[in-house]
Amino acid sequence: MSAEKPVENGDLAAAGPFSQDEREAVYRAIYSRRDVRNEFLGDEVPREVLMRILDAAHHAPSVGFMQPWNFIIIKDRAVRQRVSEAFSRSVKEEEEAAIEPARRGLYRNLKLEGILKSPLNICVTCDRARMGRTGLGRSQQPETDLLSTACAVQNLWLAARVEGVGVGWVSILKPDELRSILGVPEHIAIVAYLCVGYVDRAYVRPELEVRNWARRLPLDELVFDDRWGERAHRGSD
Ligand SMILES: Cc1cc2nc3c(=O)[nH]c(=O)nc-3n(C[C@H](O)[C@H](O)[C@H](O)COP(=O)(O)O)c2cc1C
């Protein structure tokens, strides 16, 4: 894919706003997507549903159209058992100690994974050399391959939501332990470990907010105008 080719008429199509109903459906998916840990029903997700979700992930943007991702679908309970044990070790040996003492009680009551409760897990990886060491767009920001893979995870998460499939991201896992359990080669980065399965109920707000761990920050405080820290005159004051 290197010979230059002119853009033809059919290469562009209309890209105006969606209809009101379509917009509402997309925003509903965004606002009602949750990180799921405990609400998995356990029914199997049919292959064709799973492939629709992964195809949505595969249509994420990626730097230089690098598509650096792979998806390891993990159903084997023995494999998930090993990942679950690795999670428990990470919590006990490191994560808990890193939490400020006053919050440790609250932390211990949080459920932070659904590795065995969900019927399948997906490990999303990033091949950092898929299109050469730097490739288009990565000479100044080499980490954009990892960011691209995170975009794929978000697409996956939203597509799963519209299929009634919940997703929970587990990051309290040492990448090297995952690498050894899943046989991931050294040159492949592990980006996400996801618990996946049907749900029929989900929190309306982030569970960490419901349980008083954190709250959603006001958007207005996070938006600047033109320069860091600057806010143009807003509202009626
Ligand atoms: C990169 C990343 C890592 C995360 N790791 C964990 C995790 O290890 N355990 C967990 O319970 N939730 C994890 N989460 C989920 C967040 O806690 C959750 O997204 C956040 O609380 C907001 O809730 P919501 O996703 O339901 O809106 C992770 C989310 C992201 C994006």
Automatic annotation (TrEMBL):
SUPFAM superfamilies: FMN-dependent nitroreductase-like. It holds the Pfam family Nitroreductase. It catalyses: FMNH2 + O2 = dialurate + 5,6-dimethylbenzimidazole + D-erythrose 4-phosphate + H(+). Coiled coil: none annotated. GO terms for molecular function: 5,6-dimethylbenzimidazole synthase activity; nucleotide binding; oxidoreductase activity, acting on paired donors, with incorporation or reduction of molecular oxygen. Gene3D superfamilies: NADH Oxidase. Keywords: Cobalamin biosynthesis, Flavoprotein, FMN, NAD, NADP, Nucleotide-binding, Oxidoreductase. InterPro entries: BluB, Nitroreductase, Nitroreductase-like, Nitroreductase/BluB. Its EC number is 1.13.11.79. PANTHER family: IODOTYROSINE DEIODINASE 1, NADPH NITROREDUCTASE. Belongs to the BluB family. This is 5,6-dimethylbenzimidazole synthase. The lineage of its organism: Bacteria, Pseudomonadati, Pseudomonadota, Alphaproteobacteria, Hyphomicrobiales.
